[in-house]
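This part of the workshop introduces the protein records we will be handling. As an example, a complete record with its sequence and its structure tokens follows.
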Amino acid sequence: MTDSAPQTRTLALQAKGLQRVFVDGKRRLEVLKGADLSVAPGEVMALVGRSGSGKSTLLHLLGLLDQPDGGEVLVDGTPTANMRENDRAELRSRHIGFVFQHYFLMSDFSTLDNVLMPARVAHSPGAWLAGGSAKATARAWQLLEQVGLKDQARQKPATLSGGERQRAAICRALMLQPRVLLCDEPTGNLDPDTASRIMKLIFELTHKDGVATVVVSHDVTLAERADRVLRLEQGILQLETK
């Protein structure tokens, strides 16, 4: 299937002919049967489908957390099929941000330190002390202010509401100014009003920062607001008419 991402801009994320097969004894399950998609900077693409259809599997492939059985993923035009694992990890850490249904914030660290963590990992100790820390901290404060968490920066995750934790997770995902943002059911643990505010925030930051965003969700309202909607059904991606 060929989708219809805008072709006037450099594509931040592409998938070409992705295949993924799982074998359980004599059972062979084709989760993806040659999936194609492309997402441009500043675009939000919603990925929908019934539970168990393979949406999270596709997201893991797009995020270079798993390898396809066929086809390849390109991040900012860079092919990844033949990359060494260390190079894939470097590309993933620098250019792809993740937001999950479960926030995965580290309980022993403050909100600010959780947001800073990707920058700490990306810098060597020497580079961190030589100026990386100051620049990263300024970026973290800017993000927290953008999402309304500046006053909670020194608090630990356990003291935050679900919506506040997800906002902190979004800040962490955007810390290194990634080209791609992948969201797996980011509002699944939130009440409807909070979920609406979180999705509004994701849309605003995507358009403001020119990030290519893919959101897996069962939320019909979210899908209606996305620039494009792809449905995964029996291993095949189909573009939905809005």
Remarks:
- The chain has a mean pLDDT of 90.
- Residues 95 and 177 are 7 Å apart (CA to CA).
- Helices lie at 55-62, 85-95, 111-122, 125-146, 162-174, 192-209, 220-225.
